[in-house]
Amino acid sequence: MPRLDVTIKTRDGICPASIFTPAGAAGPWPAVIFFMDGFGIRPAMWEMGQRLADGGYFVLLPDLYYRLGPYPPNVPSEVFADPKLREGFMKLVTSLDRDRKISDAAAFLDFLSARPDVKGNRFGSTGYCLGGNVSLTVAGALPGRFAAVASFHGGGLATDKPDSPHLFVKNMTGRVYVAGAIEDANFTDEQKNLLEKALTDAGVDHQVETYPARHGFAVPDQPVFNAAAAERHWAALFKLFHDAFALR
Fold first, then answer.
1. How far apart are CA 186 and CA 193, in angstroms?
2. What CA–CA distances, in Å, run from 38 to 14, 205, 209, 216?
3. In the sheet that 206-214 helps form, which strands lie side by side, from edge to edge?
4. Given Cys at both, which of 4, 12, 30, 198 links 19, Cβ 3.0 to 4.6 Å?
5. Under a CB-based contact definition with an 8 Å cutoff, are residues 38 and 130 in contact?
6. Across-strand partners of 128?
7. Helices 98-113 & 130-141 angle (0-180, nearest 10)
8. CA-to-CA distance for 200 and 173, rounded, in angstroms?
């Protein structure tokens, strides 16, 4: 099935989303929520969503910026080069807080639970940059709902802010995999160690590592896209979900 556009009713409105399923395969399938990066919904996110789906999953890609209305696709290289575009980009990113992330995720889980083409009642999540933060945030806030959780070059995972995801890991269930970039001011060694300690102290099954790459390495339209790191990320992600959902 090609990409299917749907809408999901949330506490705050109507969230547009895309559904991806394995090409040429019949369901039901285990479901994964794909949390977009900070640049929002665009062809690169669709490309990644379909690749994930073709691994054997029902993939939901919601537009987390729906509260602000429609926006043109962001081209990362153009945003970095234009101060006005950067200003608009930051308006999108800052439209989300912990409460909104959690409320939205609860609606997404209800949507998945109601679908006959979704298998099981525990789900996976993965996210990139902003979405990596969302993935960990909702996993810590909605215990028992996730079988596997991933975050790739996520930002703000272990900070001194009261909404830092590392402060809420005690409620995480399932396996957690976090991959940062060695060159990333948003995931320093200090932050990595703080997140690692929080997960260990909470008894969460996890792995935290850094790739020899820069922030944004996994997303194909990013100027810092790193093909080797991206393939490593796909291998790790598929292993995480295959193990969690007992796919062989």
1. 13
2. 20, 27, 21, 10
3. 4-10, 13-20, 58-62, 29-35, 118-127, 146-152, 175-183, 206-214
4. 4
5. yes
6. 152
7. 70
8. 13
Q: What is the pLDDT of residues 181-238, one digit of tens each?
A: 999 998 999 999 999 999 999 999 999 999 999 999 999 999 999 999 999 999 999 9
The full DSSP string for 8-21 is EEETTEEEEEEEE-
As a residue count, the chain comes to 248
Q: Between the CA atoms of 76, 6, 48 and 235, what dihedral angle is there, to the nearest 10 degrees? A: 140
Which of 221, 149, 154, 158 lies closest to 192, judged by CA? Answer: 158
Alpha helix stretches (DSSP H) within 19-148? 43-53, 76-81, 83-93, 98-113, 130-141
Structure tokens at 162: 């009261």
Which tokens in the block code for residue 7?
Answer: 């809408």
Q: Which of 31, 35, 38 is nearest to 48 (CA)?
A: 35
Q: Which domain holds residue 130?
A: 4-244
Give the C-alpha separation, 153 to 214, whole Å: 8
In the prediction, which pLDDT does 248 show?
A: 39
234: its two tokens: 């796909």
CATH number of the domain that residue 149 is part of: 3.40.50.1820
Q: Is the pLDDT of residue 1 over 70?
A: no
